[in-house]
């Protein structure tokens, strides 16, 4: 029996190796790719390797047709497709996943060899992927976008229009034309899924915003659709949204900043107490203050009517002849109440921080030590958040404040800039950072952007397929298993 199986295996492998020879006739390329694609699910490593080699040989013979066909399978091979193009629909999901893995591991790394002539083939593949991402999971969309960003037509020297094209692909995935039904007392499941999608797509777009692409549509959607429904959004999703807006605020243009600022001030007033309180949601306040500073830095006189400031730019929008003194009084009282609350909470936390090392020393098991260390890290991030809040509220008490528009503040949930090496004799010492996060060297000023570039595509890595077809408008089943911000 074993011998018979070995013989059958050798026969199948020989047959697989012969498939590319049939592909020399372009009429049969798609059919052969179909067969080989289904064979990717084979459990035998030797047979699967033969399939990989046969597919690669076929791709080298006819890159356009085979790429098109494989990506077409990726688009249509869902187990719940209404009209599957291929047989064995029960294993369609597995076939799709195997093909995507094959593209990721075997094909994409060889793009320099396969995509010739380069400009023509990169454009062909880009157009193909744009058609193929209509119904994908978050991790699959991440894979395809990562591949697109690796192409030379979207490289660092590419024109701004190229980056805008990438943004438009992400915007389409975010489905920014959809609307929430604000009449419902609570969010529907489909709405929560869409919030996750917006956060993930927005975060994925951050490295592209840094290169000059417009974030207007994302920010406009936040103002018109998300802010009016903010109270109904589950608490764990609110922080995702605020973190995303905070991370994107340095790249908003003045016009978008002017539109977004009223919503940010509205949320700030909600989460900053008018007098000293027991505690505040420091994560919300930190995100909102950071966003406020970066937006106001681009359009400072907008804050005159919102916060009662007296910033003079010489423009009619300064509105200096109007009385906004009540706004100023209310806003500064909230700043003071927030500061008093944060200082008291910071004092309590400082007293408790000393106990962590003692607790680790007395812990009896590794599990206990791990738990204590995790709590210690959380406390450290909280302290950074408190320090950031105090650093950002301090300048806002003035009638004509200076808004922070640089990298002086590193958000507590971002990786902190590393301290520079010890200075040698004769060199100036670095000045301490204002938020207690350590000095940032000249090289590290763009640290936050670098972290965003590195992490942007992690935001969609929550894999798994959902059971539904997204929000299902117009039969467009958009994406599955979209995870939230990490």
From TrEMBL:
Keywords: Apoptosis. Pfam families: API5. Residues 418-486 are annotated as: Disordered. One of its GO terms (biological process) is regulation of programmed cell death. Residues 468-479 have a biased composition (Basic residues). GO terms for cellular component: nucleus. InterPro entries: API5, ARM-type_fold. SUPFAM superfamilies: ARM repeat. One of its GO terms (molecular function) is mRNA binding. Belongs to the API5 family. This is Apoptosis inhibitor 5. It comes from Panicum miliaceum.
């Amino acid at each position: 029996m074993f011998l018979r199986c070995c013989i059958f295996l050798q026969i199948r492998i020989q047959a697989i190796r012969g498939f590319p020879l049939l592909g020399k006739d372009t009429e049969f390329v798609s059919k052969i790719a179909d067969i080989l694609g289904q064979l990717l699910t084979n459990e035998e490593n030797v047979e699967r390797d033969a399939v990989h080699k046969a597919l690669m040989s076929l791709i080298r013979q006819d890159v356009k047709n085979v790429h098109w066909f494989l990506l077409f399978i990726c688009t249509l091979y869902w187990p719940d497709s209404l009209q599957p193009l291929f047989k064995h629909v029960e294993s369609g999901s597995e076939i799709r996943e195997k093909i995507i893995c094959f593209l990721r591991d075997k094909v994409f790394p060889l793009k320099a060899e396969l995509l010739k002539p380069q400009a023509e083939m990169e454009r062909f593949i880009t157009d193909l992927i744009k058609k193929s991402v209509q119904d994908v999971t978050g991790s699959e969309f991440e894979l395809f976008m990562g591949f697109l960003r690796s192409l030379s037509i979207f490289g660092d020297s590419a024109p701004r229009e190229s980056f805008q094209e990438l943004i438009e692909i992400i915007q389409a995935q975010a489905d920014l034309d959809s609307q929430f039904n604000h009449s419902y007392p609570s969010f529907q499941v489909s709405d929560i899924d869409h919030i996750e999608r917006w956060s993930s797509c927005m975060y994925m777009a951050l490295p592209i915003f840094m290169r000059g692409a417009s974030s207007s549509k994302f920010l406009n959607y936040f103002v018109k659709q998300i802010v009016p429904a903010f109270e109904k959004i589950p608490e764990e999703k609110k922080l995702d949204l605020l973190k995303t807006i905070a991370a994107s605020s340095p790249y908003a243009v003045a016009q978008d900043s002017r539109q977004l600022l009223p919503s940010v001030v509205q949320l700030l007033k909600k989460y900053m107490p008018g007098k000293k309180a027991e505690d505040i949601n420091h994560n919300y306040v930190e995100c909102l203050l950071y966003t406020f500073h970066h937006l106001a830095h681009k359009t400072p006189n907008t804050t005159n009517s919102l916060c009662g400031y007296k910033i003079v730019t010489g423009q009619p929008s300064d509105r200096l002849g109007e009385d906004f003194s009540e706004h100023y009084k209310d806003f500064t009282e909230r700043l003071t109440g927030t500061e008093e609350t944060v200082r008291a909470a910071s004092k309590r936390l400082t007293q408790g921080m000393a106990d962590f090392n003692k607790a680790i020393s007395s812990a009896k098991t590794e599990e206990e030590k791990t738990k204590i260390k995790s709590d210690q890290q959380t406390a450290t991030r909280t302290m950074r958040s408190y320090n950031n809040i105090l650093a950002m509220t301090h300048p806002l008490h003035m009638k004509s404040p200076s808004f922070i528009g640089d990298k002086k503040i590193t958000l507590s949930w971002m990786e902190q800039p590393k301290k520079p090496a010890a200075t040698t004799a004769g060199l100036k010492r670095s000045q301490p950072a204002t938020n207690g996060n350590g000095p940032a060297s000249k090289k590290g000023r763009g640290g936050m952007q670098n972290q965003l570039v590195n992490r942007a595509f992690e935001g969609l890595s929550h894999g798994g397929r959902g059971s539904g077809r997204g929000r299902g408008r117009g039969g467009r089943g958009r994406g599955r298993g979209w995870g939230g911000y990490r």
